[in-house]
Design brief:
Strand order of the largest sheet: 10-9-8-11-13-12
Largest sheet: 6 strands, mixed
Low-confidence stretches: 206-220, 307-317
Helix content: 10-25%
Mean pLDDT: 83
Distance between the termini: 57 Å
Shape: globular
Number of strands: 13
Strand content: 15-25%
Length: 317
Amino acid sequence: MTGIVYKSTGSWYTVKTDFGATYQCRIKGKFRIQGIKSTNPIAVGDRVDFDLDTTNNEETVGIVTHIHDRKNYIVRKSVNLSKQTHIIASNIDQVFLLITIDNPPTFTSFIDRFLVTAEAYSIKTILLFNKIDSYQEETLNEVRYLAHIYRQIGYECIGISAATGKNIDKVKALMQDKVSMFAGHSGVGKSTLINSIEPELDLKTKAISNQHMQGQHTTTFAEMFDLSFGAKIIDTPGIKGFGVVDMDKAEVGDYFPEFFKLKQECKFHNCIHVDEPKCAVKEALDRDEIAYSRYRSYIQILEGEDEHYRTDSWDKE
């Protein structure tokens, strides 16, 4: 039988067939010894083949025997095992990255790391600036500034309020007939937004922790949902840090679209935009045509400064 993985708990997988039947499946042992460095050899969104294990003439558990090739996936460094990776979801049409300026803060280093990974696998990313109903004018100006930076690069940016429903119709229109993944820190409002889009799902939500101004995990595992208007959504656990994996230093700049556009103007074809003379990227940076926050994120990725996940600011220091 063949189906799509709708939920992964690490050892059990909920698989839905093309006919709408759902089975609880386990993985066949050989997948764990095939040199897969990911902490999760099967991810939500994977298309898999499975056999039904029959006990006492009853079909009880599915055994996954084959993972179909993925068209793409979002991957990051595993939190506990730095040399391993964690595949968040696969076979995605687009990602909505939820951003909040405070309560909790989303830093540009996190946004840029996420965007670089999505660019590497040609996954369209839309930036959703959530909770704009709760911001004072000064904070709204920060939203406008950030949105301006990313719109200039070519990313679609939408200010939304999951609580009041502002611009939710725009999000739903973009989701039509697509598989969309929602991502962001804990507490940015992913579950609240999904409930606003599809109230019948009634996903659990929690208030922000006052002690650390960070979200509390309400989504423990990635899970896909079928929505009533012909869309699929993958809800993911809140991500604290986003470690970029499997990228050669020479190619990182290619995943910054505004750098890639200037690459041919650099004196050296293998310029990595750090110390080389007549570098078009650094010249554009000096003319304020490239955002300083973006260049700093780029340097941090080159240098592997993973500790900068949550320490960042937007202004030149």
